[in-house]
Each structure stands twice: as structure tokens, then as C-alpha cells.
Amino acid sequence: MDMAAERxxxxxxxxxxxYPVIVGPGVIDVAGxxxxxxxxxxxxxxxxxxxxxxxxxxxxxxxxxxxxLEPRFVLxxxxxxxxxxxxxxxxHDFFMGEGLDRWSPVIALGGGVxxxxxxxxxxxxxxxxxxxxVPTTLIAQVDSSVGGKAAVNHPRGKNVIGIFYQPKGVLIDxxxxxxxxxxxxxxxxxxxxxxxxxxxxxxxxWLERNLDGVLARDxxxxxxxIRRCCALKAGLVEKDERDLTDIRALLNYGHTVGHxxxxxxxxxxxxxxxxxxxxMAVAARLAGIMGVLGSRSVAxxxxxxxxxxxxxxxxxxxxxxxxxxxxxxxxxRQGRMRFVLTEALGHATVFDGIDMGLVxxxxxxx
Length: 366
Ligand SMILES: NC(=O)c1ccc[n+]([C@@H]2O[C@H](COP(=O)([O-])OP(=O)(O)OC[C@H]3O[C@@H](n4cnc5c(N)ncnc54)[C@H](O)[C@@H]3O)[C@@H](O)[C@H]2O)c1
Ligand SMILES: [Zn+2]
Hints:
This protein has helices at residues 31-37, 50-66, 85-97, 112-124, 138-144, 182-199, 201-215, 219-239, 246-249, 255-265, 272-289, 295-307, 319-327, 356-364; strands at residues 9-12, 19-24, 42-48, 69-75, 106-110, 131-135, 149-154, 157-164, 169-173, 332-333, 336-344, 347-355. With 366 residues, it is of the alpha/beta class. It has a 7-stranded mixed β-sheet, sandwiched between helices. It has a 3-stranded antiparallel β-sheet with strand order 10-11-12. A two-stranded antiparallel sheet has the order 7-8. The mean pLDDT is 96.
């Protein structure tokens, strides 16, 4: 497939909430121009964390200053504990302290934790201020920064307190992946493989052929790959902005079992992407057992995940624990469950009423 022809700017077309997703090397350096072109001036709050601030703060600062904007940085702590109501409130205090008004932009510079927390704070401050995403992890670049979901955690559940709030722009600088720890890069690839598996068989073939270059972080491979993912996500979000039909739900491929693994192992033990990879391997096997997906396609899914260095089994997490976590899922009812399965590579469908006995078999296959 001609991945080189993938557009540099992808539009998420949502009427008056439409916005561009700009992907490529050096994009941070044009962030200031982009914000200025949208008509904003004066103070800009950059919500970030230690690592992205250290690596990319200086470049973002010059870019904003060169466009006549005045950046103010505010730091969030690491990990899920940053995604809390208290931190949102702290951000609101900072916005007030800086005298932000309804036309003052907020920029999230970092991974999904920063994007979610900053997006929630920006979307609720004065009923919403202009918000930009500058994602710097692979997960954030291919998934969390596009689509407008922003949520923080409640002590009793992940991502329970949230809003739909579309950004004004998503600025993806592929150079930022150079400093990302390998484990995070690989975990992000699980979401990439997911897009191909549910929506684009040609992209799947491209990934099979280009995986080594992607793992070596070859910019000529990363840029078209991320563009393709954003274009696919944009297409799904345009058809189902608020996740009301089965369309956006297809993105949950591998996630039902993935979430159960994350919970059964104890949060923080597995990276989200790793658990999703194992979840997709289980879903592929389940589709195989049900006769929905051919054995060659099952094998292709498992082999690409393995080659990427991702888990395709429960890796010691107890099957019983995973099953028990699945039974707490809202998609579980009377011994049966709803799953996104692939019927062919590049085609996913929601299946209802799948017998848990079959799920158990798919979980326990070697
Ligand atoms: N809103 C959505 O649609 C959506 C979708 C998927 C995931 N998420 C959320 O995203 C979060 C996970 O995001 P994540 O995987 O990006 O993790 P993360 O945001 O915790 O980032 C991982 C770590 O990498 C550091 N980092 C960021 N960029 C770096 C870089 N370029 N080089 C070196 N270090 C860097 C961060 O500071 C952090 O310590 C979860 O909370 C999840 O719920 C949201
Ligand atoms: Zn995910």
C-alpha cells in the first residue's frame, strides 16, 4: 500500500468541532504558528510532566514565543495518580492564578495521562477553553489524543469521571518517540496492530513487512504508521463521536480481556498495551474456536504480536482470576458475554451472547 501518500494533515470532520491532526517530524516547532493561526494570543498554559518537559519543553517554548505567545508550564505527577479530581482542581487553581479567560489556550504535552487530565481541566474551565494536544508517547499519538475523550479516575474506578471535549488541534511530532522507553513503544504498538486488525488489512500487511523498521524507530516508517492510525481513528470518531453505537466500540478489540488481565494481575504490573495484546490474542483464538475466523488469520495475529515483543498468553496470571474479572464487566450477563471479534483481518464485528465456556478455552490455549 502507498503509505508514503498518507496525508500530513488529517482532518477529524465534526462540523464546527472539526480539527486537524498534524503528524510528522519537527511538528513541535510549528505549534506556536498553529495556535496563533487559530487566532489565540497572550498566555498559553502547557500542562506536562517531568520527562516531556525536560525533553521537549525548550522547543515548545521557543515555538510559542516565536509566535508571540507567553507559555506558562504546570507539572503533573507520574502515572494514574495524576488522573484525579484533586489534580484537575489544582489545574483550575493554576488557570485562575494566571488569569486565563475563555480564549486562553491550554496545551497538553506528554502521554495519555497528561492529555486526559489536561483535557478534562480545559474542557470544564469556563465551560471549555481552547485545547491542544501535543502527544509524546505512541499510545497518546495513535489513540488518546484523537477523539475527544478526557477522563480522570474515581477511587472506585478508572476513567469514571469524564467528558467529550474535542481539541482545536493535535500536533504529533514523531521525533518525540526517540526518547520513549522501548517498553512504552512496544506497548503502543499493540494499539497500532489493533487498528489494522479491525479496520485495514492492507495496513496489517504493511505492518508485517515494516515491523523491524518500526521497532528501530525509523522515521520513514513511524510517520506514515501514525498517520494511518489517526486517519482510521478519525473515521470511526466521525461516525460515532460520543460512543453511542457499535462503531467506536470496535476500538475496544482486545480490551475486554485486556482490562481483566490488568485488574487480575494488579494495576501497574502490565502496561495497558501489553494486556491489550494478550486480549487480542485471546480474541483471535476465540474467533478461531467459534469458526468465525480462519486459522491462518488467527496465526497471523498472534505472530505479529509476538514479533513486536508483546505477550500473547496470560503469562502466569491465573485464568480463574481473569474469568472472575470478566464476570464483573458490564458486558457479562448470565454466563454470556459481548466481544469484539475479527471475522477476517481488517474486519471486526461485535458478537453478543458468547458462552463463557468458549472464552475459558480461548484463555487456556497454550
Ligand atoms: N482518552 C482516551 O481516548 C484514551 C485512550 C487511550 C488511553 N488513555 C489513557 O492514557 C493513559 C496512558 O497513557 P500513556 O501510555 O501515554 O502513559 P503516560 O501518560 O503515563 O506516559 C508514560 C510515561 O512516559 C513519559 N513520557 C512521555 N513522553 C515521553 C517521551 N517522549 N520520552 C520519554 N518519556 C516520555 C511520561 O512522562 C510518563 O512518565 C491512561 O491513563 C489511559 O487511560 C486515554
Ligand atoms: Zn487501549
